[in-house]
Amino acid sequence: MFKVAIVGVEATGKSTLAENLAKHYQTIWVREYAREYLTRLDRKYTFDDVLTIAQGQQRLITKAIAQNPSLPIIFVDTELLVTHIWCEYVFGRHHSWIAENLSKQNFDLYLLCNTDLPWEYDVLREQPSLEKRKEIHKLYEFYLRKLHFPYELIEGKAEQRLLSAVQAIEKHFKFSDKNFQNGDKV
After folding, report:
1. Residue 175: band (very low, low, confident or very high) from pLDDT cuts 50, 70, 90
2. Is 155 exposed, middle or buried (0-12, 13-18, 19+ CB in 10 A)?
3. Residue 89: what pLDDT?
4. How far apart are CA 128 and CA 27, in angstroms?
5. Cα(91)–Cα(68) distance, integer angstroms
6. 185: confidence class by pLDDT, cuts 50, 70, 90
7. What is the pLDDT confidence band of residue 186, given thresholds at 50, 70 and 90?
8. Is 15 in contact with 31 (CB distance < 8 Å)?
9. I need a labelling partner for 155 at 20 to 30 A (CA). Which of 4, 78, 98, 138 fits?
10. Which of 115, 13, 88, 18 is nearest to 57 (CA)?
11. Does the keyword Iron apply (predicted)?
12. What is the secondary structure of the chain as a DSSP string?
């Protein structure tokens, strides 16, 4: 099974891309746990909430892989790199659990969504400034290189973004479309 992580700054189309790729390849995608968690939270999130989110995301990923071992590919909407950078940028420090487990991740490919989409308001989003979003994007590039994680930059709007991602996937993996099963979010 190929495991593809979709990462990047907020409002770069990660969730939409994960869902669209799952439909394209007729497989599953693992949703972003942070959105679910923060929507239920009745206060401002804390440093420790980000750890809880990271651990919740890891549980979803582990469960999806365990329940679908015969799938040729799955997509994951955010993972530990996202929470690691989130902690660094918002709180100026890292959780040791996230840092330790980040280095052990084994995704076959990371799709790094660029900041070329316009920021759209969402109650959970915090960074409308394109300058700050580009600054955070540079952190993604830094860590992907530092950790030697294979990645491709994904750009474009709507269909072009999906096409960019499909081309990146086809560049890295060889598999037959007939192996894919019905796709949905888990």
Report:
1. low
2. middle
3. 94
4. 32
5. 36
6. very low
7. very low
8. yes
9. 98
10. 18
11. no
12. -EEEEEEESTTSSHHHHHHHHHHHHT-EEE--HHHHHHHH-SS---HHHHHHHHHHHHHHHHHHHHH-TT-SEEEEE--HHHHHHHHHHHHSS--HHHHHHHTT---SEEEEE-S-SPP---TT-----HHHHHHHHHHHHHHHHHTT--EEEE--SHHHHHHHHHHHHHHH----GGG----EE-
Structure tokens given for 2: 């190929």
Sequence-ordered list of residues with C-beta below 8 angstroms from that of 134, at least 6 positions apart, any chain = 115
**Tell me, what CATH number does 32's domain have?**
3.40.50.300
Kindly report the number of other CB atoms within 10 A of residue 23's CB atom. Answer: 14
Residue 65 has pLDDT above 50, yes or no: yes
Q: Answer for the pair 108, 2: CB distance below 8 angstroms, yes or no.
A: yes
Prediction pTM value: 0.91
- Walk across the sheet containing 184-185 and list its strands: 151-154, 109-113, 2-8, 73-77, 28-30, 184-185
CA 91 – CA 6 distance, rounded (Å) = 23
The residues that bridge with 152 in the sheet, in sequence order, are 111
Q: Write out the residue range of the structural domain in which residue 179 sits.
A: 2-185
Show Cβ contacts of residue 91 under 8 Å, excluding neighbours closer than 6 positions: 47, 50
